[in-house]
Design brief:
Length: 116
C-alpha cells in the first residue's frame, strides 16, 4: 500500500482564531498561498481557494451543510468537502486538504510535492 507523505502547516493558534464569513467559509494563508476552511457537520474542512472550473473564489461560495458541499459563486458547481469531487459529471475535482486541531494549533496537512 502506498502512503502519501503529509506535511503539516500551522494555519492558526486555535479554531477560535479562524474567522469565517457570513457564508461560513474562512481563508487562511500557508507559505503565501490562500486556502479556504469551513466547518460543516461539526467537522473542519480545508479546500482550494479557487474553483477548478472557472477560477471563482470559493470563499465567496456557499455551504450546503446538509450535503457537506461547497458551491462555486460563479456557476454554482457543488464540490464535496471531503474528497473535492464535483456533483455534476464534468470531471472537475477541487483540491482538499487534511485538517487537525491540536493543542499546538489549527493545522492543515498538505501532501508533499503537491502543494497547490
Amino acid at each position: 500500500m502506498f502512503w502519501k507523505k503529509i506535511k503539516w502547516h500551522k494555519a492558526a493558534n486555535s479554531e477560535a482564531e479562524i474567522k469565517l464569513n457570513s457564508n461560513g467559509i474562512g481563508v487562511v494563508e500557508i507559505e503565501g498561498k490562500k486556502i479556504c476552511v469551513a466547518k460543516a457537520k461539526n467537522e473542519w474542512h480545508a479546500f482550494a481557494y479557487s474553483c477548478p472550473h472557472a477560477g471563482g473564489i470559493m470563499a465567496e461560495g456557499y455551504l450546503d451543510e446538509a450535503g457537506g458541499n461547497v458551491s462555486c459563486p460563479i456557476h454554482g458547481y457543488k464540490f464535496n468537502l471531503k474528497n473535492g469531487r464535483c456533483k455534476i459529471p464534468d470531471g472537475f475535482t477541487m483540491k482538499t486538504y487534511r485538517v487537525d486541531s491540536k493543542e499546538e494549533g489549527f493545522l492543515i496537512g498538505i501532501e508533499e510535492g503537491r502543494f497547490f
